[in-house]
Amino acid sequence: MIDTLRLTAEDAAALLEDGEVAAAELHGAYLEAIRARDEELHAYLTTVDAPEGEGVPIAFKDVISTRGIETTAGSKILAGYRPVFDATVAKRCKQAGLPLLGKTNMDEFAMGSSTENSAYGPTRNPWDPERVPGGSSGGSAAAVAGGLAPWALGSDTGGSVKQPASLCGIVGLRPTYGTVSRYGIVAFASSLDQVGPLTKTVRDCARLYRIIAGRDAYDSTTVELREPVEIPAAEDLRGLRIGVPRELNEVEGIEAGVTDAVRRAIDLCGGLGAEVATCELPRSVEYGLACYYLVAPSEASSNLARYDGVRYGLRAEGNGAIREMYERTRDEGFGDEPKRRIMLGTYALSAGYYEAFYGQAQKVRTVIAREHAALFERFDVLVSPTSPTVAFRLGEKTENPLAMYLSDVLTIPSNMAGLPGLSIPCGLSDGLPVGFQLIGPQFSENTLFRAGHALERALEFDFVPPRLAAKDRA
Amino acid sequence: MAITRDEVLHVARLARLALTDAEIERLQGELSAILDAVGKVAELDLSDVPPTSHPLDVVNVLGEDEPRPSLPVGDALANAPSREGGFFRVPAA
Q1: Contact across the interface for B81 and A418, Cβ inside 8 Å
Q2: Which pLDDT score, from 0 to 100, does residue A71 have?
Q3: What residue ranges of chain A have pLDDT lower than 50?
Q4: Where does residue A469 rank: exposed (0-12), middle (13-18), buried (19+ CB within 10 A)?
Q5: Which pLDDT score, from 0 to 100, does residue A472 have?
Q6: Which DSSP string corresponds to A282-351?
Q7: Is 80 exceeded by the pLDDT of residue B1?
């Protein structure tokens, strides 16, 4: 009997290697778990019955193009769309022999922090189905935390891998910008979008990053890794210089239970041999969110211009001329959040406002990058909570876009600077997982994996949601 | 920063969105609130700071100009809402 709630991808690979389990059997165990639990969680939009590959199965966020398999990006405007090619990350997973379990739910076009913006209904948190899994990669996070996939891929623009990993009690990596191909990823904000792994352990995260990372001739913004990905093994943090940016740890809105859990993890870092000191990131935190909500919607308004009812996706029926068809298709096909961001971005880029908004935001981005770069002269890693709160209730923030946007206040600054960030679970607050964010300089994934792994060992966090473990035994 | 109904309509036209009256009204309020919040970037004097458009220091990635197979026409048209022969079919322009 395969316990999909507990099995890590590494364990699964060992079972396959030793011939204790056949690939089809393993895949079947996950499909069985999906049948049993996904009616409640709604982590998947599509499942694959006849997978190819002899390796550890995987789930993809529905923003990743999969040849012949419906890819909607959580939007009605792409309902029924079957890509005629694979995204590079999908191709690399295929080449590594990873069979696809299915495509996971997400906020429409990756715009959101709760997965409630999906046109196909929300995903629920495996720790408490009355709560959100975070977003926008909420389906992938819930699938891994709920034992419906051993590992999964998501995408992260402002925090869409790190924040759902945090809210679901699992590990998530937002890689250095440019290390993972965006070819075949439904575009949101191209200067920020990165695909990243969601896994149960840091070692699984490193294994999956090793499969997907590296230069791709189909994406000219990609670069070669500076060093091969190492699977972390060390259990101490000797020699590591850890900075604790005051603003990232004290900004208004961080729940007391989150602060407590993160504080304990920071203390543990000292015990494991790291040198820990406080530092400052004043302008990055104060202006990061505003900068992001100008840059990302501006890029989105341009990227989403392609949905015009001509080449693929929805076309509104009617007898009007082409312009009317465009406008009606887009009004019918996009949900509220994409419309909001298209409007905001179009406004910020329009004549008379461009310099004051988009131009100024690009300069703030430079300020943020410089502030981080200065800290990395003194520190190897910066740490903070990943999300100011634990998983919130469905509907709690849907009526107030600005309150929802604040979910990413701690993940956005380093994203603006193109830096990698790892979120690992560090404890519970009111019975819900708290995420610990580790940020490094560009191309420092190996350092983040090493630190994350040592800390994960010392924290001994149990990633199985108790209510599901209890149900399984019953 | 309050934006007017006319501004909402102007931006919707630029963005090719046929918004309903209810959407126009809601967006007028929401966009005003969001623009207030993001307008914060104007507080900083950054006249001597260069803009960042891309987080990595990568410029002009050049490749050989070699013909390679591209998407077959049938594949390119496979998801079209309407097509005719080798073309996308659209309403009159």
Answers
A1: no
A2: 98
A3: 474
A4: middle
A5: 60
A6: HHHHHHHHHHHHHHHHHHHHHHGGG-SSSSSS-----SS-HHHHHHHHHHHHS-HHHHHHHHHHHHHHST
A7: no
- Residue A260: helix, strand or coil by DSSP? helix
Query: What pLDDT score does A378 carry?
Result: 98
Domain hosting residue B21, numbered range: 1-40
User: Does residue A173 lie in a domain region?
Assistant: yes
DSSP one-letter code for A122:
-
Cite the active site residues of A.
61, 136, 160
CB within 8 Å of chain B, chain A residues 101-160: none
Quick check: is A226 in a domain?
A: yes
pLDDT of residue A317: 85
Do residue A363 and residue B61 have CB atoms under 8 angstroms apart? no
The range of the structural domain enclosing residue A72 comes to 9-283+365-473
**CA within 13 Å, CB half, A198:** 43
pLDDT at B2: 84
- In a domain? residue B64: no
Q: How many domains does chain A have?
A: 1
- Both tokens of A271, joined, read 């015990």
The verdict on a CB contact (< 8 Å) between A416 and B41 is no
Q: Is residue B54 part of a domain?
A: no
Give the ipTM: 0.96
List A residues 404-433 in contact with B (Cβ-Cβ < 8 A): 416-418
Q: Report the residue of chain A nearest B59, measured CA to CA.
A: A221
Q: Residue with structure tokens 């004097």?
A: B45
Per the domain annotation, does B25 fall within a domain?
yes
| Per-residue pLDDT tens over the stretch A318-349 | 878 999 999 999 999 999 999 999 999 999 99
State the Cα–Cα distance between residues A431 and A440, nearest whole angstrom.
29
Answer yes or no: is B89 within a domain.
Answer: no
Q: What is the CATH number of the domain that holds A160?
A: 3.90.1300.10
- In terms of C-beta density within 10 A (0-12 exposed, 13-18 middle, 19 or more buried), how is residue B46 classed? middle
Closest residue of A to B55, CA-based?
A418
**Alpha-carbon torsion angle A144, A225, A410, A246, nearest 10:** 130
Q: Measured between CB atoms, which of A325, A350, A359 is closest to B91? A: A325
Looking at residue A353, its amino acid is Y
Q: A348, A221, A370, A223: which is closest to A292 by C-alpha?
A: A348
Cβ pair A420, A175 in contact under 8 A = yes
φ, ψ for residue A185, nearest 5 deg: -95, 130
Model pLDDT, residue A432:
98
Contact of A324 with chain B, judged by CB distance below 8 Å, is answered with: yes
B 2-61 → A contacts, CB under 8 A: 3, 7-8, 11-12, 14-20, 23, 27, 30-31, 33-35, 37-44, 46, 49-56, 58, 61
Give the domain CATH number at B23.
1.10.20.60
Question: pLDDT, tens digit, for every residue of A151-166?
Answer: 999 999 999 999 999 9
Cross-chain residue pair A311–B3, CB shorter than 8 Å: no
Strands (E), A28-110: 44-47, 58-61, 100-104
Compute φ and ψ for A235, nearest 5 degrees.
-115, 15
What would you report as the CA-atom Rg of chain A, rounded to the nearest whole angstrom? 21
